[in-house]
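dumping this here so i dont lose it
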């Protein structure tokens, strides 16, 4: 089969590789759509060992299954949670199995991902796609699920005020899910007017372009000077956590959603004085089904976040297009079935 492979180079290669076979408990999925995510471009930074087939935002059709898989039929349309678990470790035995200590994460060395014609995955990680949800949308079930996880970590309540820092696809998905969950005021801070306008259009969030607007003033105006209940860092920039901290009310909650490559010293005095909660949010647990359902109900604008649908072999073009048109492109989805 054809697969995109990270070989340690700057760009990806299309290669012929053997088709996967289902191991015990697994299904093989014919990939219909696999999205490109920022983390797919960081294998070298994470000091991963090539070759790796990337792709952790995947949707497709079950075409083969192990004899011990009973809950799926050939032909089922599924979205995939990339975090395959061992079922035996401390995390798996607790209520945070998504932090499995022995995870075989799709798109890593030990589990080839979905930038390929076929991918093998634990049946436990496949979720049926509801009627009416396209494969391109369903490929965004993973990024949506991890955004939902942010608010579960923050214990967001309906009627609370949410600040999302970051106007990329994760900013959009966070804002959309905050709206679904009944947030009162949603402020999205970013640098690109085009992106912010799209997010506002979908979510009725209040935008703040921090290149020319003072975020602190916007927060104060919208919360009567109190501050936000919840703030989410969806940028990964080193300065963001402290900006978020300064925007929170006493006992507010900061969610560290993004991986921060160059962290700066945290304002711990402010954390102390205001009894702030700092929580990390990584991957997701129990979030796929609600996100797919929200897509089916047209509440989650996944389809509208997909700006490019491109054949698998043009992956490098898609990546450079995303980089060149950052201000008005959110997501690109690879279509292995299209030539
Ligand atoms: Zn991702
Ligand atoms: Zn485990």
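and the seq i came up w/
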């Amino acid at each position: 089969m054809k697969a995109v492979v990270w070989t340690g180079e700057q760009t990806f290669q299309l290669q012929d590789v053997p088709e996967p076979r289902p191991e015990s408990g697994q299904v093989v999925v014919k990939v219909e759509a696999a999205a490109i995510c920022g983390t797919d471009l960081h294998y070298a930074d994470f000091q991963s060992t090539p070759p790796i087939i990337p792709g952790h935002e995947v949707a497709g059709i079950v075409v083969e299954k192990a004899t011990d898989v009973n809950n799926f039929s050939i032909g089922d349309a599924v979205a995939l949670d990339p975090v395959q678990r061992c079922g035996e470790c401390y995390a798996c035995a607790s209520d945070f199995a998504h932090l499995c200590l022995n995870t075989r994460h799709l798109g890593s060395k030990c589990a080839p991902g979905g930038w390929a014609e076929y991918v093998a995955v634990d049946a436990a990680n496949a979720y049926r796609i509801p009627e009416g949800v396209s494969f391109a949308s369903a490929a965004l079930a993973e990024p949506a699920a991890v955004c939902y996880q942010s608010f579960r970590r923050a214990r967001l309540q309906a009627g609370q005020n949410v600040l999302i820092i970051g106007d990329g696809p994760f900013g959009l998905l966070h804002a959309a899910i905050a709206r679904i969950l009944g947030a009162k005021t949603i402020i999205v801070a970013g640098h690109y007017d085009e992106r912010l306008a799209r997010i506002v259009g979908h979510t009725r969030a209040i935008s703040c372009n921090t290149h020319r607007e003072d975020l602190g003033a916007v927060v104060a105006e919208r919360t009567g000077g109190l501050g936000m209940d919840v703030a989410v860092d969806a940028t990964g920039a080193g300065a963001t956590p402290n900006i978020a901290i300064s925007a929170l009310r006493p006992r507010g909650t900061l969610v560290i959603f993004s991986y921060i490559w160059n962290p700066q010293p945290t304002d711990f005095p402010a954390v102390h004085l205001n009894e702030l909660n700092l929580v990390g949010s990584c991957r997701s647990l129990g979030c796929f089904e609600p996100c797919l359902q929200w897509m089916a109900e047209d509440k989650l604008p996944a389809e509208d976040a997909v700006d490019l649908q491109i054949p698998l072999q043009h992956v490098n073009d898609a990546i450079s297009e995303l980089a060149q048109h950052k201000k008005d492109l959110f997501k690109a989805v690879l279509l292995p079935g299209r030539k």
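The chain is about 25% helix and 25% strand.
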